[in-house]
Amino acid sequence: MVAIVVAGLCGGLIGYAVMDLQCDAGCTTYAGLTGIGAAALAAGGVAIVAVLTLRAMSEWEATEAQRAAHEPEDT
Fold first, then answer.
1. What is the pLDDT of residues 18-65, one digit of tens each?
2. Rounded to the nearest 5°, which phi and psi values hold at 56?
3. Among residues 6, 32, 33, 53, which one has the fewest Cβ atoms lying within 10 Å of its Cβ?
């Protein structure tokens, strides 16, 4: 959850800074809107990666548990 929030903050700051550099004067509203859009995109992207990572870890653990259940025990 922290990674998603940090990515959103970083994306927002980068989006705002890029739009602020592109405009000459009086574009704070557009820069702010661009920052909000960039924050949403960055947070969404990191959230997707986090979900896919958690699913892969879950599948890995299930496969390892199944493999351990089917292996003969050494005695």
1. 888 888 777 888 888 899 999 999 999 999 999 999 999 999 988 888
2. -65, -40
3. 53
